[in-house]
Amino acid sequence: MEINAFKYCQGNQNFYSTVMTFEEIINNSTVSIYSKNNRLGYQRSLVERHLKKIVVSLKTDSTPISPTSILLGIDEENLIQEDESSRKSSRDAGYIKLKKNEGNNTFRIIDGQHRIMAMNRYIQELSDKDDKDTDKINKLNSYEFSVIIMPINSNKKIKEVEVFQSINAKAKPLKTDLVKLALTRYEELERVKDLDYTNHLAKRIIFSLNDDKLYKEDESKEDESLMDSNSKINVWKNGIIIDVNNDDEIGIIGYNAFYKSLELLCKIYTTDIQDELKGISYEDLDKYLNVLSNKITYELIIPCWKIIMDKWENCFSYKKLSFDDEIYYDDSYYIQKNMGLRSLHNILTTIVKKNNDNKEDFSKIINEFETIIISSKLISEDWEKGGRFKGLSSEAGFKHIESIIKQ
Question: Which of 119, 143, 162 is the C-terminal boundary of a domain?
């Protein structure tokens, strides 16, 4: 594939501005969509409502216009640029060649996937008709899009995620849980040492809880002993929705909401180690955070939620979904939604903060937490949706629920 393009540079990042047909884009592109099999994905699945709206506009508009550029990422090694010596200035058109990979993964659609996939669906609908309009199909296949190509070092793909985040930062309908998560994962993959320790610790805890297994469980015999010694029920198994934009995801609360409930707790465990960790290798840093997250998950959070479950057992409902999947949450109660999660984790965080000098004495912390929960006058029915705590979804509301629990 050979493309005429204008080359320009912003900061240290090169871009190529060009024109490509729909057929060229669809045959040579993929989208990095999050799934359980692709946890480095940073984009949501297609939103059917949005897709249908674009398809309808294509059907009703005889001359559709899409002036906004499609943004495509590509690994630098797949971009072969011809000699620039003949160019008089950076504004002259530079002629570039793309080395074609096998399959349709030369480009990654960073922005514009709904427009491309809507046109693809419309063409499929036309092709499936007995009296298909070949001229119409050919016109759509040759429809030209303004395209910006962004070459990226294959070992620094975090840049691609950051660009996607920047584009969608102000898009209210798009929840950015996946973007934040992908940034954290790429920091791990690319061994970035200057980490937000709180963010990385919380992410590890969330995945351990949701997957019901140790984070990087093959690393440490010490971690394995945590699983052997802890047979308590994990009420958060499959309870956290990682892709909040996917209607098929199981769970009761989104990743970002759960993260917010853990943020202050994790900050207590990472604040005192900032200087200590700065001088160590990435491998040692990664292992340290894994071990710490597994301890907090299995020696603190899971036992505390078992206490909560024993106190308000009607708020939980065990269901076997398949051979591998099971859940404990009950959507008709607030206890595992934002109101319950934030207020109960606030109580736990306060106890940990009070015991800051002995914050890894989990038995002492759990005993204090259990005393508060067992002594509470609340009953399961108080947690029912639409009941006593209805409307208490603000920070002030969480504190109010916390005070009621402690009464």
Answer: 162
d(CA 134, CA 140): 10
Q: Is 25 part of a structural domain of the chain? A: yes
In 291-364, beta strands by DSSP E: 316-320, 326-329
- The answer to whether 308 and 373 are in contact (CB under 8 A) is yes
Residues with Cβ within 8 Å of residue 159, at least 6 apart in sequence? 13, 152, 153
Match 């853990």 to its residue by tokens: 262
Q: What is the pLDDT of residues 114-123, one digit of tens each?
A: 999 999 999 9
Quick: pLDDT tens for 205-253.
999 999 898 887 544 555 555 555 555 799 999 999 887 666 677 899 9
Q: Report the run of H or E that residue 187 belongs to, with start and end.
A: helix 177-189
Please answer whether residues 177 and 52 qualify as being in contact, where contact means their C-beta atoms are separated by less than 8 angstroms. no
Tell me the pairing of strands 70-75 and 107-111.
Answer: antiparallel
Can you spell out the DSSP letters for 261-272? HHHHHHHHHHHT
- 191's torsion region: left (phi>0), alpha (psi -120 to 50) or beta? left
Question: pLDDT for 52-94, tens place per residue?
Answer: 999 999 988 878 888 899 999 998 888 876 555 555 555 555 5
Q: CA 249, CA 236: separation in Å to the nearest integer? A: 14
Sign of CA dihedral 212, 214, 217, 220: negative
Residues 41 and 128 in one domain: yes
Q: Residues 117, 210: one domain?
A: no
